[in-house]
Specification:
The protein has helices at residues 2-22, 27-38, 44-56, 79-96; strands spanning 25-26, 60-67, 70-77. The chain has 98 residues and is α+β, with helices and mostly antiparallel strands.
Length: 98
């Protein structure tokens, strides 16, 4: 079970980057999309610290949007984040031989 959890954590890092390469998203969208794609649940405690780390590395930026009485952070890739995601996608395609 620990091995699967580690795999899911690493997969989550990759998936968050790739989902943001498709366009801006807020944390709930990312968690929902991951669950739909994998059948596994990401927690807020996994997603938001990862987004924070990606922001500190200059890969992700956010802006706030109002949703009724709530404010949501909508995340998107920066120029560096887009370049990193594109490079990663190229490497994955080569690795998988697609």
């Amino acid at each position: 079970m620990k091995r699967e959890e580690s795999f899911i954590t690493n997969l989550a890092k990759l998936y968050v980057l790739l989902i943001l390469s498709r366009g801006p998203a807020h944390g709930y969208d990312i968690m929902k999309s991951f669950r739909e794609a994998t059948g596994k649940v990401l927690s807020c405690g996994q997603v938001y610290p990862l987004l924070d780390t990606m922001q500190k590395k200059g890969l992700v930026a956010y802006h706030e949007e109002s949703d009724g009485n709530r404010k949501r952070k909508v995340y998107s890739l920066t120029h560096d984040g887009t370049a990193f995601a594109d490079d990663l996608k190229t490497k994955i395609v080569k690795l998988l031989g697609l």
